[in-house]
Amino acid sequence: MNETLTPDHTETARKFVDYTFRDMARFCATHGWDDAREQTRERLLTDLSPAPLDYRRSMVLGRQLFYFSHAYRVTGYETYRDCALSLYEDLTGNFWDDVNGGWYFSLTADNGLSDGTKDLYGHAFILLGLAHYLAIIGNDEALYWIRRTETVVWERFKLPGGWLAPAATREWALHGGNLEQNPHMHLLEAYLSIYRATQDEAFLDSASRIVSVYDEFLRTPDRTRVLEHLDENGQPSGEKGTLIQPGHLYEWYWLVCEYADCAERPAIKSENAQLVDWGDSHCLDTEAGGMFDLVNSSAAILSDRKRIWPMTERIKALGTLLRDTPNEHGPEKLVDAIRFFLDHYCRPDGSWHEYLTRNLVPDGDFMPLSTPYHVAMAALEVERLLGGPGAFGMTNTRAPGL
To answer: Which of 148, 198, 321, 379 sits in a 20 to 30 Å window from 314, CA-based?
Structure first.
């Protein structure tokens, strides 16, 4: 338990964790679940009916595998374990390309091929889901799939510049040589998870390779921001090269701090805190509240909508700051962020608003079933402050009875 949290702070923190792994998990296991096919749905409409889509992405299965594994760990409810088991069987039984290797981007509801693209971002989330499933549910076969996927990542996506291609065809013809921030960030998240679950130094080495790409290419020269899209030379190019997604500033800070603990490099924590400072100074709406979706490197607001996930990243970063560098204002900043999130994004039945307008009016007609991953990662960091294992507390976290 973090000693700087008052009883009121603790109550709000517990409310957030309970909402995430009880209310939201119950919603996802009912409205978000196709009982007939024993599959997670891709997305819902705001009236809670399934969106009429003819595809389901492997990325969503990876995120949901992570989510339901932790929902089972936190609550002990067998329903969530059953969901995790079904997701694992669905993923490994249907989405792997037995001919060419790698994971398909998407299938139809009846397991026909929808998109055979090999997507690096999707491979990252499959690794993440498998790591947490391995640690919590205890199915050691998951490590076999982790190792197969790891081999594919470094043999098939690797580019001469040292980074990884964003995607390839089904037969592994690469889709360009540009450097995309987002899949690298989530690969780091996956490798840290696998390392915590296995203590295999090879996965920490893979994490270090991703951190090297981040240090050398993705950060701006003044080290205060992270760029999203770089060209085949690892350089920002044109307007696209100046784009900043504020949520990713907080997410990188959180990940680098976890990497610093794993790699025993504590000095890099304080230097990366500049990302949080820049985000708080330039990306928060000081009038209505919340965080803008998109800015550029000059801090001009390019989209003033407020999607749900950037707020979860700020909660993670504030929780990390409170744990590593506690100060008198830290607890209140964190709790204010949690209260804003619960008040404006969360609905009593466990569903959520995916978007808000600048003035905090719900804005959007769908709920992706990939979103609970974001909320859960934030709730796990809050759980860590309450004495729990947290997002990367992979040791001895198997659920009751295992």
So the answer is: 198
